[in-house]
Design a protein that fits this description.
Blueprint (H helix, E strand, L loop, with lengths): L1 H12 L9 H8 L19 H13 L1 E2 L5 E2 L5 H11 L1 H4 L43 H7 L1 H41 L9
Antiparallel strand pairs: 1-2
GO biological process, one term: RNA processing
Subcellular location: Nucleus, Nucleolus
GO molecular function, one term: RNA binding
């Protein structure tokens, strides 16, 4: 079949009168579906079964959330994942403020990220200048000196508690070993009288 196509193509290009095809005809031949590798390509499917259609529809539905007005499921990059984890741990970050318990143990599939736009009335006292703004929540937390100091203090107290616990465990084990050795060396004898 490809030989016939090539012969037909050559006969069209090399006519007896030796006139060349117009540019539009040449472009049409270039964009022709039938090419040299036509026989190797698979035939497109004309009919799809119901099961295949349902699978495709299910995949499309899973990309948006119907109950929340088609809220999209964005791609979960590492940056977004870090931001969501920080939001999940917000009660640890700000212990003086009460936050409701998280509904999910895992990260949400459907979410949107927005940007807070300050009102012009808060220009002087409650806004963050552009130089101090960061792209992500994690970057903002790392840039905050007060937060860093708070984390350092918390880390020190945790390390001290662990050291104290490990010391208590070591002392307890030492006492147990001493008692075991004492019992081995001085076994309790029973004479039969109570």
């Amino acid at each position: 079949m490809s030989q016939k196509f090539l012969e037909l193509k050559n006969s069209l290009l090399n006519t007896d009168t030796k006139t060349e095809l117009s540019k539009s005809a040449q472009e049409a031949l270039k964009s022709c579906v039938i090419t040299d590798d036509f026989e190797t390509k698979p035939v497109p499917q004309l009919f799809e079964s119901r099961r295949v259609k349902r699978k495709k529809a299910k995949i499309e539905r899973s990309k948006t959330l119907k109950d929340w007005y088609d809220l999209p499921a964005p791609e979960l990059t590492q940056q977004r994942k870090n931001d969501l984890e920080v939001l999940k741990m917000r009660s640890v970050l700000d212990t003086k403020h009460f936050y409701k318990k998280n509904d999910l143990k895992v990260l949400p599939k459907y979410f949107q990220i927005g940007q807070v736009i300050e009102s012009p009335a808060d220009f002087y006292h409650s806004r963050i200048p552009k130089k101090e703004r960061k792209k992500t929540l994690v970057d903002e937390l790392l840039a905050d000196a007060e937060f860093k100091n708070k984390c350092k203090r918390k880390y020190k107290t945790i390390v001290q508690e662990q050291a104290f616990k490990s010391k208590r465990v070591q002392m307890h084990m030492k006492n147990l070993n001493r008692d075991r050795k004492h019992k081995r060396n001085n076994p309790v004898r029973f004479d039969g009288e109570l």
